[in-house]
Amino acid sequence: MPRIEQEIMQRQFRNERHKAIVNIVYTGHWLTARHSKFLKQFHLTEQQFNILRILQGQYPKPASITLLRERMLDKMSDVSRLVERLRKLDFVERRTSRLDRRAVEVSITEKGLEVLSAIEQHVTEVDAMTHNLSMEELEHLNFLLDKLRG
User: Taking the alpha carbons of 130, 135, 136, 139 in that order, is the dihedral positive or negative?
Assistant: First the structure.
């Protein structure tokens, strides 16, 4: 198992805090790259997949653009643009709210649900990204990451 020093060819860090931050950022990018490569076979980006998952959780109720923006993992995403791309793929529908003409409601379509179902058939490929860790280690990692953000 290569250490972060080997991965980025850096001999030393200022201290363990600095090393941990670099390691978390590096590992985050490593996971993102692998997840993006996996989703590419379904012609989706990570952000598009995130929107579909949120809409699946809302199904059959629609979601507002604001709700999607609040629940996105990547808070810098342009949700309106992502929704429009998903609409062109027939994965979502957009319509003006009956209650507020200024608001837009977004719903997942059958085709969107089907692509999520197809992705779910390959879930072991995604889970394999953590194959080096036991369930106990994964629980501890989740605890530590939650604590770090807390």
Answer: positive
């030393």: which residue's tokens? 12
Going by C-alpha positions, the residue among 113, 35, 40 that lies closest to residue 73 is 35
Distance CA 83, CA 55 (A): 11
With contact defined as beta carbons under 8 Å apart, do 4 and 26 qualify?
Answer: yes
Q: Could you state, in order of their start, the residue ranges of all structural domains in the chain?
A: 1-40, 44-149
Q: Do 79 and 122 form a contact (C-beta atoms < 8 A)?
A: no
> What is the number of other CB atoms lying within 10 angstroms of the CB of residue 68?
22
Architecture field, domain 44-149 = Orthogonal Bundle (1.10)
pLDDT, tens digit, 9 for 90 and up, residues 66-125 = 999 999 998 888 999 999 999 999 999 999 877 777 788 999 999 999 999 999 998 888
